[in-house]
Amino acid sequence: MNEYAELLNHELSRADVRTLAAALRAGDLSSFELTQHFLKRIEQQQSRLNTFITIDVEGALAAAKSADIKIRNGEAQPLTGIPWVCKDVFCTSGLRTTCGSRMLSGFVAPYESTATSRIRASGAVMLGKTNMDEFAMGSSNENSFFGPVANPWDLSRVPGGSSGGSAAAVAAGQAPLATGTDTGGSIRQPASFCGVVGLKPTYGRVSRYGMIAFASSLDQGGVFARSVEDCSTLFATMAGFDPLDSTSAAREDDWLDALRNGVPPSSPSPLRLGMPRQYFNGLRGDAEECLEAARKTLESLGHTVTEVDLPHSRPAIPAYYVISGAEASANLSRFDGVRYGRRAEDAVDLRTLYVQSRTDGFGTEVKRRILTGTYALSVGYYEAYYQKAQRIRRLIQQDFLTAFADVDVLLAPTTPGPAFRREELTHDPVAMYQQDIYTTPVSLAGLPAMTLPCGFIEGLPYGMQLIAPHFREDLLLSLGVHFQQSTDWHRQTADAAVLS
Ligand code: GLN
Question: Rounded to whole angstroms, what are the CA distances from 130 to 86, 111, 134, 146, 170?
Fold first, then answer.
């Protein structure tokens, strides 16, 4: 690549959505060209990063052509012609959806998820389906049937999980926008590890229809982007009531509609922020320094910060793993090789067909969750595990509600540290689960939270977590935009590692 071409490549890959949309409307660039640019970059990087399970060249170019027509006719919406990538957990009609599993390696859904159909209707151009931990179970993307994803900042490290492909794709400049899902941290943790913004909305804000289920009382679709502003447009496009999801929230907010129309989040009036004391006890020093610097920045912007208590945080991980495992064991029972999923060959009777299809189709971690989940629900253990976990869940929810009586938003770590090395934790599932210490309580409470870059630890990005009361994503977005106006952590790029 000559110097000029490299510069152009860099600029297009790093441009924000507003700049790209303006270039498209002005006719400086067509969506077709933009799409080709990103597809080329994806293909160049795929062998190193493995961010994709399916790259949809044909579908993307066709969508780009129709976006160009809309733009020429003056019918463009804010995302028309803008490329995005989709976690392979959302069903896409006619295009394979694997959920990172051998079980679904040949599955083509006959229908489209609500979230993706809304994004497609906005005219955005989907480039492909991103890699993920199998059935969204994992914190490192090492549980994918399609192989691990590399972290663009350091190829020997994990990108986080389970939405590791989406986070790494955005960090590597393969697309400005991506979807993810978060059950216990799967958007926020990879966002922290890859140095991008990740928003997990309130439970019920984004429809779960057509999103392959892991733990139905926790699963929530959300977004990745490099800036909070970019995040806000895609989030608003996906969000909103859906009669096809029984737990979808029947609630519309005016600000959602404004965001959908491309109005940026407004600057917040001074907010009261709370730092949960329990989240900082034992946090490593360099992570604490990053958060301390973020606190100072936020104070200098006029916000006040106090300490708050979340006394029941400690049992969040066991409660989360009992509840999510129990729900997973029920949800995954549908993959029997008969109605859904890969069918074992040579099975001589029905029982062998079930056993063999599930034995071959699921990976080790998924089997571990099914077994522990089934155990927690079994007669005699139900009260000791499942019911107890539900009681802890209620106490955790109550802690947050109490804290939100005094503060507007919580400022917390997302992860105990920066991205760890590949295979560092694979031998020890419990150590892997402990990565989720700061994200699972928020999931159990159904709250919205956003991770955004706030510093570097040993040359690796590190993200802070902002947590808001139910349905107050507007507070997170406004505060996030405010923070990013006076910091440039989100403008640092991982190019060096990826392009060399
Ligand atoms: N790491 C957590 C788990 O493995 C979270 C996964 C998720 O949010 N999908 O369950």
Answer: 6, 19, 12, 10, 11
pLDDT digits (tens, 9 = 90+) for 387-432: 999 999 999 999 999 999 999 999 999 999 999 999 999 999 999 9
Identity (one letter) of the amino acid at 288? E
Give residue 303's identity as a one-letter amino acid code: H
d(CA 483, CA 473): 15
159 φ/ψ angles, rounded to the nearest 5 degrees = -90, 0
d(CA 90, CA 421): 28
Q: Is the dihedral of CA 42, 43, 49, 55 positive or negative?
A: positive
The verdict on the CB of residue 136 being under 6 Å from ligand 1 is yes
Pick from 82, 85, 73, 86: which is nearest to 33 by CA?
82
User: Which ligand 1 atom lies nearest to the CA of residue 182?
Assistant: 8
Tell me which fold the domain 3-277+283-310+402-499 belongs to.
Amidase signature (AS) enzymes (3.90.1300)
Dist. CA 327 → ligand 1 center (Å) = 13
Q: 230, 153, 151, 215: which is closest to 184 by C-alpha?
A: 215
pTM of model > 0.90: yes
Among 44, 120, 138, 133, CA closest to 83: 120
Order across the sheet with 83-87: list the strands. Answer: 52-55, 125-130, 83-87, 177-182, 220-225, 197-200, 449-457, 460-467, 409-413, 272-276, 304-308
Give the nearest ligand 1 atom to 435 CA: 1
Q: What is the pLDDT of residues 33-85, one digit of tens each?
A: 999 999 999 999 999 999 999 999 999 999 999 999 999 999 999 999 999 99
Q: Token digits for 354? A: 């079930």
Give the 3-state secondary structure of residue 95. strand
Q: Is the Cβ atom of 137 under 6 angstroms away from ligand 1? A: yes
State the Cα–Cα distance between residues 87 and 9, nearest whole angstrom: 24
**Taking each helix axis from N to C terminus, what angle separates 31-49 and 57-72, rounded to the nearest 10 degrees?**
150
The structure tokens listed for 360 are: 């071959």
